[in-house]
Inverse folding.
């Protein structure tokens, strides 16, 4: 790691740790910012690095959320009776019960989505391009609809999550740091993963899957692993978000296909897909912009979001990192031969 | 669920009701599906704003009804308005994504869908609306089965519109140019077809068809700003099952889809309606994928 890069990482770590004390009223918003970074990064593993544009990754987020909630409550109570009573049964956990349930819930929330990704990849990876996007969108919508019809987990009226045992303010701080750790683990893991042969393989799949397969890559296996990695981190994110919100229900909180599900695509495209830092940058920019302007737009915010997506994909497809790579290739360790660059014919050929 | 099935078996006349309802709604799905097949085949743009075009047309009919006019009169203005809207959308967005990769067009039209549904929500509010045609009902089987006259008229209008489209595509000079572009855009350009205009016209015609479908839907069923996505998914179901450029298959699939939806709504309950459409889409995608797998190909 070079010196400026190390400084950047340390600066981000310090800022992340200091944030809840500097802005104590905004801990939840900062926690969601970390989750947004995680969203964009996991989407980019599929959409940017591998060229499989999923519109339904939010499925794993909701799945993780529900698995965690079911574990936390189901360990000590009868879940069906709890959801059916619609608030009449009060959950009363000791501290130990809460943390054991949460830890076990997060672990399961990571593993069940991985299993779901493995099964779904078997079904969906025969689809490519737009069919894959539509197919995954369909799976996410179906999951939301089926969850809201499943009375065991409360159906459309949702589940009230167990109350955090700590004092006022400690709950926000606890989940802020949990989200931060999850996003940083995701970043570090992907950073390591992109340094291995794995990245070359999934980039080959993006560039030409048939040729990659002909050269002996087990494309299906790579695709499954890539999707499972996304599912793993999204499941954890879902578990944390559900506990942070305190109340979960299928359509708006667990499977928000049209908000978080689209945000992750928009953020990655804004930052520049297929790069390590693009999604992070896009997430920070997008989320900051959203939080600052959202409340002032009075109902126009969704139109602004739609317009942003259109303008982004139509006029600014390469994203910020892609644009920088074109403008300043030397920053990325690409040496440009000045003679070839000044020759317009070469540019056309390239 | 089982009780509902038993009702259907014990009283076969309910089947007639469901099938009639399904066919009349399916005819409108056929219009949206045909429009998508047209755009998909000619420009290779997967239009995810399809359902929202339908809703826009529906709100024109709703406005007509609110001002005391017969919503049936809205058919022509809605089509004309949507034609203009389609042209504008083509000029501003679609034209620039045609050459880019396919996901870009999907995402750009998805962005358009968000803009349209949210604008409709701002203007008309989130309530479920319908346009009253003021026509009566026809009762059959001693009042056991009833069907509104407007449904029959809508069905007939769908057939007329589809027939008109076939004639236009087969006979007119522009229709021939559209078909030529769909077959091979480069060759068409060499032979003097202005493909940019063909693309623009195709997209606008699709929007106009959707607008007309929306007017019919507003009269026979309900409209709401966010119901558009369901029509987009239905159009995708129809096109992925029937393939491009096969009008007869599109109509048959659409009618079948309408009937299946009515049955699932009756047997499983209305809350499973959306899940049924999406489930059908997944089933068709998987089925086509298995069919292609034998030739070691992927659906793309």
């Amino acid at each position: 790691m070079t010196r400026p890069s190390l400084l950047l990482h340390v600066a981000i770590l310090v800022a992340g740790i200091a944030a809840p004390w500097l802005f104590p009223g905004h801990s939840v918003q900062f926690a969601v910012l970390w989750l947004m970074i995680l969203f964009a990064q996991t989407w980019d593993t599929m959409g940017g690095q591998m060229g499989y544009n999923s519109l339904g990754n939010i499925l794993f987020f909701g799945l993780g959320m529900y698995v965690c909630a079911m574990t936390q409550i189901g360990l000590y109570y009868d879940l069906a009776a709890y959801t059916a009573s619609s608030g009449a049964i009060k959950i009363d956990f000791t501290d130990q019960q809460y943390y054991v349930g949460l830890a076990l819930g997060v672990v399961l929330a990571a593993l069940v989505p991985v299993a779901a990704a493995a099964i779904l990849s078997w079904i969906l990876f025969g689809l490519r391009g737009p069919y894959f996007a539509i197919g995954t969108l369909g799976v996410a919508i179906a999951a939301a609809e089926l969850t809201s019809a499943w009375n065991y987990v409360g159906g459309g009226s949702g589940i009230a999550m167990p109350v955090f045992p700590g004092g006022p303010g400690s709950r926000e701080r606890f989940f802020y740091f949990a989200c931060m750790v999850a996003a940083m683990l995701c970043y570090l893991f992907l950073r390591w993963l992109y340094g291995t042969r794995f990245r070359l393989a999934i980039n080959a799949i993006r560039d030409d899957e048939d040729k990659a397969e002909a050269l002996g890559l087990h494309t299906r296996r790579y695709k499954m692993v890539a999707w499972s990695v996304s599912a793993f981190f999204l499941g954890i994110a879902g578990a944390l978000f559900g506990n942070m919100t305190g109340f979960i229900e299928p359509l708006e909180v667990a499977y928000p296909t049209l908000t978080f599900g689209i945000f992750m695509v928009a953020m990655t495209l804004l930052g520049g897909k297929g790069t390590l830092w693009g999604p992070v940058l896009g997430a920070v920019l997008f989320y900051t912009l959203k939080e600052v302007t959202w409340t002032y737009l009075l109902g126009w915010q969704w139109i602004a979001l739609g317009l942003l997506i259109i303008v982004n994909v139509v006029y600014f497809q390469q994203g910020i990192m892609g644009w920088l790579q074109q403008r300043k290739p030397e920053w990325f360790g690409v040496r440009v031969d000045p003679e070839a660059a000044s020759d317009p014919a070469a540019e056309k050929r390239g | 669920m089982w009780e509902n099935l038993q009702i259907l078996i014990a009283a076969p006349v309910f089947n007639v009701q469901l099938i009639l309802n399904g066919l009349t709604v399916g005819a409108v799905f056929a219009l949206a599906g045909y429009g998508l097949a047209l755009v998909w085949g000619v420009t290779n743009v997967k239009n995810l704003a399809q359902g929202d075009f339908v809703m826009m047309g529906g709100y024109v009919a709703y406005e007509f009804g609110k001002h005391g006019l017969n919503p049936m009169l809205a058919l022509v203005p809605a089509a004309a308005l949507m034609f203009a809207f389609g042209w504008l959308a083509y000029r501003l967005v679609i034209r620039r994504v045609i050459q880019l990769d396919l996901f870009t067009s999907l995402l750009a039209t998805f962005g358009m869908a968000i803009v349209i549904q949210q604008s409709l929500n701002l203007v008309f509010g989130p309530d479920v609306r319908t346009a009253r045609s003021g026509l009566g009902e026809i009762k059959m089987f001693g009042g056991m089965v009833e069907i509104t006259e407007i449904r029959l008229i809508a069905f007939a209008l769908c057939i007329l519109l589809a027939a008109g489209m076939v004639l236009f595509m087969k006979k007119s000079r522009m229709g021939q140019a559209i078909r030529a572009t769909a077959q091979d855009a480069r060759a068409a350009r060499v032979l003097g077809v202005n493909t940019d205009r063909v693309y623009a016209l195709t997209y606008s015609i699709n929007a106009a068809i959707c607008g007309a479908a929306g007017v019919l839907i507003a009269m026979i069923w309900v409209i709401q700003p966010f119901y558009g996505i369901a029509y987009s998914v239905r159009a995708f179901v129809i096109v992925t099952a029937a393939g491009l450029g096969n009008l007869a298959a599109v109509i048959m699939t659409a009618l079948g889809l309408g009937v299946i939806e009515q049955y699932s709504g009756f047997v499983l309950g209305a809350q499973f309606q959306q899940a049924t459409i999406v489930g059908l889409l997944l089933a068709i995608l998987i089925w086509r994928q298995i069919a292609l797998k034998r030739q070691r190909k992927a659906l793309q």
